[in-house]
Amino acid sequence: MRRVYYSSGSVLTADSIAAAVLEYAEALAKNGRADIVAVPVVLASGHVGTATLLIGPTSQLASVTEESELPSPDDDQLVADLQDRSRRLGSPKPAAHQYAEYLTAHEDYE
User: Fold this and answer.
1) In the chain, which end has fewer C-beta atoms inside a 10 angstrom radius, N or C?
2) pLDDT number for residue 59
3) Cα 23 vs. chain centroid, distance in angstroms?
4) What residues make up the domain containing 8?
5) Rounded distance between C-alpha atoms, residue 47 and residue 62, angstroms
């Protein structure tokens, strides 16, 4: 399992969920967007609960491997959904300076 750290604490979740959340957070940040995601987590009691995370351009997330005897809260449907959301965001829109460089490189086509 992996412990996902964010500004006000941390949550323990499945490796695949942590990876999908970080990938989605990166895609959101690259596009200047934010979203709320509910993920299954392991509570201190050992039971499965839900953490609701606001992720976006200013999110500072980290994920660290953590050994645990507790069952992992896997959720293949959530992982697939987050991966799909990441893909749909695609590449961010080019910054103005990148567009200017493109035009400069292709001036001879005017």
Assistant:
1) C
2) 87
3) 4
4) 2-109
5) 23
CA dihedral sign of residues 73, 37, 30, 64: negative
**51, 41 contact by CB (below 8 A):** yes
Task: Indicate the residue type of 100.
Answer: A
pLDDT (average), residues 44-55:
94
What pLDDT digit, counting tens, does each position of 62-108 carry?
A: 999 999 999 999 999 999 999 999 999 985 555 544 445 545 555 55
Its pTM stands at 0.79
Place of tokens 């965001």: 89
Q: How many structural domains comprise the chain?
A: 1
Instruction: Compute φ and ψ for 71, nearest 5 degrees.
Output: -65, 140
Which helix (H) or strand (E) segment holds residue 2: the answer is: strand 2-6
Q: Is 61 exposed, middle or buried (0-12, 13-18, 19+ CB in 10 A)?
A: middle
